[in-house]
Amino acid sequence: MRDADGSNATNLSNNAAVDENPSWSADGNTIVFQSNRTGNPQIFIMDADGSNQTNLSNNSDWNIEPALSPDGTKIAFQSNNESGLMLFLMDVDGSNQTKFNGLTWSSWRTQDEPSWSPDGSHIVVTKNIAGSQQAVSVANSNGGFYGSIRAG
Questions:
Q1: Which of 22, 55, 58, 98 is geometrically suited to a Cys-Cys bond with 33, CB 3.0 to 4.6 A?
Q2: Quick one: average pLDDT of 91-117?
């Protein structure tokens, strides 16, 4: 973090590991991010001042690209828990880590870069499809993809 003019840079995670892909809570009090400080990338949470850093995913899988829901109760993220990097959700305390939907890795190679709608009712992801095609897809936040915009 730094002042608007670029001065007073502060390393919030204060760690030698690769800490990246931060996502602020809507109230500005919390940040989720991914870090490889325990080996494979994991999802961490910390207070906005860098204190209280906690590993939420805490498993041997790759867990990346966290996005906090607008109400601060859920985190959308990618995990390779089932073959490829698929979209998962968990509670903000790290519990209830579940695959988001019934898509299999063979039909959609990955579901990247999750982002919540402002009201939390939808999640948008980039789907990487076999043959290096990509599609931006929207889903209800309770499951089920229903729209895609394809790019070649």
A1: 22
A2: 78
For 109, the token pair is: 């190679």
**pLDDT given for residue 97 in this prediction:** 93
The first and second tokens of residue 70, run together, are 């607008």
CB 127 within 8 A of CB 118: no
Contact 34, 63 (CB under 8 A): yes
Closest CA to 128 of 98, 103, 102, 108: 108
The Cα angle at residue 14 between residues 9 and 17, in degrees rounded to 5: 120
* Confidence at residue 149, expressed as pLDDT on a 0 to 100 scale: 54
Q: Which two structure tokens, joined as six digits, stand for 38?
A: 């325990």
In contact, 53 and 13? CB cutoff 8 Å: yes
List, in sequence order, every residue forming a beta bridge with 112; answer none if it has no partner. 126
CA 68 – CA 80 distance, rounded (Å): 19
- Closest to 53 in 3D by CA, of 14, 82, 24: 14
* Global confidence as pTM: 0.85
Q: Rounded to an integer, what distance in angstroms lies between the CA atom of residue 13 and that of residue 25?
A: 16
Residues listed for the chain: 152
pLDDT higher than 90, residue 132: no
* Residue listed under structure tokens 């800490």: 19
